[in-house]
Design goal:
Helix content is 48%, strand content 11%. The protein contains 19 helices and 14 strands. The strands form three sheets. It has an eight-stranded parallel beta sheet. A three-stranded mixed beta sheet has the order 5-7-11, with no helix packed on it. The longest helix has 33 residues, at 124-156. The chain is globular.
C-alpha cells in the first residue's frame, strides 16, 4: 500500500471512532506501519524464499547472476553489512546473509567458545535469525525515519519537487531484509529433532536451511578431520523433515541446501540397509573398505556383507566406525549430491579442502549429466589459505607450461618477499575472479564466506588495542576509527541515531505531542556529526 493510501485508511478508521481516537495522528500511524513492514518471521521467510527462487531462475538463465553472502554472528554486524551494501551499490539484489553454526558455537553459546561440533544450544540458532531480522527491520525504520523528517522539512522550504521525490522514495523503498541461509548443522538429533528445530528457524524468518550428511553426535567442522557420514536414507529423512516444516508453516517455496562432507569424511558409523543389488544402500556400502573372506575366516562379532555371493568383511576400527576405501571421496560426493536433488533438495553444498575451480567443476559436470540445473552454494572458507593455494596453483600451471620458476620456492610462496612478483599478481587476479569463474564453470549459484566477520572483529580490535594502549593514545581511536567513519560516511558514527534514539523521539512526539521530552535536541552531542 502506498504512503498516502495508508494515511487515508487510518484517517477513515480514526474518524469512525467518533472522537475517541482523535489524539491519534493518521500520518504517524502510516509511518510506523511502513517502518515495520514485516510483522512476523513467517512473512520474512515467504518474502525471502520468493527472492531466492527468482535469483535461482536468473542464474539458470545466465551464470553471471550468481549470489553472495557474508557470515554474520550478531544482528548489528548483519545490519551494518546491509547498510553498507545499500550505500555503496544502491541495491540489495543477489546479496544475502549466511548464518554459520561455527560462529554460533564459537561466539553465541552460553557455554562460552565451543568448537563446531553441535555442542551449542540449538535454540541459539533461531534466536540469532530473529536477532538479525530485528536489526535489519530497525535499519528500515531508521532510514525511513530520516526520509520522513526530510519530507516534513520540504514544504516548509517550499520545495515541491523535493517533496515529490521523497514521497516516491517512500513508496519505492527497498528493504534491508534479505534471505538468510541458515546452518542447521547435522540436524541436532534424529529427524524429529531436526523438524522441530527447522520450524523454529523458519518461524524466525529463515527461508533456506543448510543441512549436512554427518552423524549428529560425531559432527565436526567441515575443515577438520574425523568426519563421519550417515547412509543416504538417514540423511534424506532429515531433508524431508525440513521440507515438512516449510510446508506446515506455509513457506511452500522454502529452500533446502544439502551439504556433503564425503570428500573429507573417510568413516561411517553405520552400514546402510540394502534390499537388492544396486539400491542406494548397496551403493553406499560399495565404498566400504572390505576384505573378502570365507565362512571359516569369520570371527566372533564380525559384521559381514554378502555381495554377489561373496562374503566381505568391512574394515572396523576400535571406535566401532567403518572405513571407506581411500580415493572414493569424489564418487561419494557425486552420489550424495544426485541422491539429494532427486529427493527434494534445492541446492547443493560440497565441502572441499581447497578452492580449486577445476576440482569443483569436475564433480559438478558429473552431477549435471544427471540433473542439468544442479547448483551449488560454495563455502569460500577462511579455513583455506587463499594466498598460498592460488600461488601454488599458478606455480603448477607455469611449471606445466615450461616457464622459468628458478626465482620461486613452491613451499615458501606465502612469503611477503613474493608479494610484488608476477606470479603473486597473477594469483591475486585469480582470487579476484574466482567467484565469477566458478559460477560460470562450476555451477556455483551462491558464494559465501562462513566466518569473515569473526576475523574482521579480531583484526580491527587488535589494531585499535595496539594503537590506543600504545604511544598513540586517544589518537589511535580518533585517527583510525572515528575520523575514518566520518570520512567514509559510516552510519554508526552517529551511534545514538543507530541505536534508535531518533526513532524513539518520533514516537514520543506521536504519543505526547508538544509535551514530548526528546533526546535529539540542540544539546545532543551527536549534532557534531551533522
Amino acid at each position: 500500500m502506498a504512503y498516502q493510501d495508508h494515511i487515508i485508511e487510518m484517517s477513515q478508521l480514526i474518524k469512525s471512532k467518533h472522537g475517541a481516537w482523535d489524539g491519534i495522528n493518521p500520518e504517524g500511524v502510516a509511518r510506523m506501519r511502513l517502518q515495520n513492514r514485516f510483522k512476523t518471521g513467517l512473512e520474512i521467510a515467504r518474502y525471502t524464499a520468493d527472492i531466492m527462487r527468482a535469483d535461482m531462475a536468473a542464474y539458470d538463465a545466465d551464470p553471471a547472476n550468481y549470489t553472495q553472502s557474508l557470515g554474520c554472528w550478531h544482528g548489528f554486524i548483519a545490519q551494518q553489512k546491509m547498510i553498507s551494501i545499500k550505500k555503496h551499490f544502491g541495491t540489495m539484489e543477489r546479496r544475502y546473509i549466511y548464518l554459520s553454526g561455527w560462529m554460533v558455537a564459537a561466539l553465541r553459546s552460553d557455554f562460552g567458545p565451543l568448537p563446531d561440533q553441535s555442542m551449542h544450544e540449538k535454540t541459539s540458532v533461531p534466536a540469532l535469525i530473529e536477532e538479525i531480522y530485528t536489526f535489519l527491520k530497525q535499519a528500515d525504520a531508521r532510514e525511513l525515519g530520516q526520509i520522513f523528517r526530510d519530507l516534513d522539512a520540504a514544504p516548509a522550504a517550499g520545495d515541491k519537487k523535493q517533496e515529490e521525490k521523497l514521497l516516491d522514495a517512500v513508496d519505492n523503498f527497498q528493504t534491508h531484509v534479505v534471505p538468510i541461509i541458515a546452518d542447521i548443522d547435522a540436524g541436532f538429533g534424529n529427524a524429529e529433532a531436526t523438524y522441530l528445530l527447522a520450524k523454529k528457524m523458519i518461524e524466525a524468518g529463515a527461508c533456506a536451511l543448510q543441512i549436512e550428511n554427518q552423524v549428529s553426535d560425531e559432527k565436526q567442522c567441515g575443515h577438520q578431520d574425523g568426519k563421519v557420514t550417515v547412509p543416504h536414507e538417514d540423511f534424506l529423512a532429515k531433508v524431508r523433515a525440513c521440507r515438512y516444516a516449510f510446508l506446515e508453516l506455509g513457506v511452500d517455496n522454502g529452500i533446502v541446501v544439502t551439504r556433503t562432507d564425503s570428500l573429507g569424511a573417510g568413516l561411517t558409523k553405520q552400514i546402510a540397509v540394502s534390499h537388492e543389488p544396486g539400491d542406494i544402500g548397496d551403493q553406499y556400502n560399495s565404498f566400504l573398505d572390505c576384505e573378502e573372506i570365507s565362512p571359516a575366516d569369520m570371527k566372533n562379532g564380525d559384521v559381514v556383507l554378502n555381495r554377489g555371493g561373496k562374503l566381505l568383511r568391512p574394515k572396523r576400527l576400535p571406535s566401532n566406525l567403518f572405513q571407506f576405501r581411500a580415493g572414493t571421496g569424489e564418487d561419494r560426493c557425486v552420489l550424495d549430491s544426485i541422491t539429494s536433488l532427486q529427493n527434494g533438495a534445492d541446492l547443493l553444498w560440497i565441502e572441499t579442502e581447497k578452492p580449486h575451480v577445476d576440482q569443483i567443476a569436475g564433480m559438478m559436470d558429473r552431477i549435471r549429466a544427471v540433473i542439468p540445473n544442479a547448483k551449488l552454494a560454495y563455502n569460500n572458507s577462511p579455513s583455506f589459505n587463499w594466498t598460498l593455494n592460488f600461488r601454488q596453483q599458478v606455480y603448477d600451471a607455469w611449471q606445466k607450461a615450461g616457464k622459468d620458476l628458478a626465482a620461486y620456492d613452491r613451499e615458501k610462496l606465502m612469503s611477503v618477499d613474493y608479494d610484488a612478483t608476477a606470479l603473486a599478481i597473477e594469483a591475486d587476479e585469480k582470487i579476484r575472479t574466482f567467484q565469477a569463474d566458478a559460477a560460470k564453470r562450476a555451477g556455483i549459484f551462491h558464494h559465501l564466506i562462513t566466518l569473515p566477520t569473526y576475523h574482521t572483529a579480531a583484526l580491527s580490535t587488535d589494531n585499535l588495542a595496539k594503537e590506543y594502549f600504545g604511544s598513540q593514545g586517544m589518537l589511535g581511536y580518533v585517527l583510525n576509527v572515528q575520523r575514518q567513519e566520518i570520512r567514509q560516511g559510516i552510519a554508526c558514527v552517529k551511534h545514538q541515531n543507530m541505536s534508535g534514539s531518533d526513532i524513539g523521539d518520533d514516537h514520543k512526539e506521536y504519543f505526547a505531542g508538544e509535551a514530548a521530552l526528546k533526546a535529539g535536541g540542540v544539546h545532543n552531542t551527536m549534532g557534531q556529526f551533522a
